[in-house]
Amino acid sequence: MTTRGGSPVAKLRWLRSELRRARERAGRTQKDVAAEFGWHPSKVIRIEQGSVTLDVADLSVMLRYYGVTDQDKISEFTEAARSAKEHVWWDDYRRDFSPELITFVSYEASAVRNRQFQLTMIPGILQTEQYARAIMRLYDDDDRIIDRGVALRLDRQRILEAPDPPQMFFVLDEAAIRRPVGGRDVMAGQLRKLKELADRPNVSIQVVPLAAGEYVGMKGSFTIFEFAGADQDFVVFPEQTLGIVTAKTPEEISQYVATFFELEDVARPAADFGQIVDTVLAES
């Protein structure tokens, strides 16, 4: 697996932000670029948003138009454009799952920090195989798709064993660790896995107690991915009933980041997590 800093996702994010900066330094607008090359304006927008990969030939003419002549810089741009097209492990799941889910997985595998709040269940990247299978059966009754979904969850967990694992911060509603998904034994195994993961220096797990009453997290689960060296540092995925979406504006993103910090304050300290798990196991 590629490391996050050199992953195609990270390269594409770097490329889009650096191209935009080069255009702005040259005093060109997106309309100027489109008119110069006879492109539809939406093509330039998609390139700078990172929603499409960039052909090296198109990159070359854009850099020339922007006045970028330094050969080392040109080589860096070219290498990033080529790397963004490399095959990655999550490509193997594209036929079975939505583009939105694959985008989520690609960001998860590439981020340097992962902050997630979950109201109802254990986050996918922390699930045991048995817990994941029970959850997948809520969404599909096709055994092949269930198997693929479980495999995807387990593949996502490979970043936990990487030489440079991301910093991961989880806040869970107490209901998520008390609900016996898959039955008592499956849930006990899941809780023991969470306790082991929480002992790692790069993983923090906190629980919002039921006694907290109403709190801001009741509005819904969400995930925040933070990237290094990118112009837009955060990508936010609020969890929606009809699928995965992303927060669009800087104001929306800032609000989610602030909300997560507020949730950390409402939750019990991460140092208490082992004790919380022991209590739940003893009571189940």
TrEMBL record:
UniProt xrefs under CDD domains: HTH_XRE (cd00093)
Pfam families: DUF5753, HTH_31
Coiled coil: none
Domain of life of the source: Bacteria
MF GO annotations: DNA binding
Domain HTH cro/C1-type: from-to ranges: 19-77
Protein name: Helix-turn-helix protein
Organism: Actinocrispum wychmicini
InterPro entries: Cro/C1-type_HTH, DUF5753, Lambda_DNA-bd_dom_sf
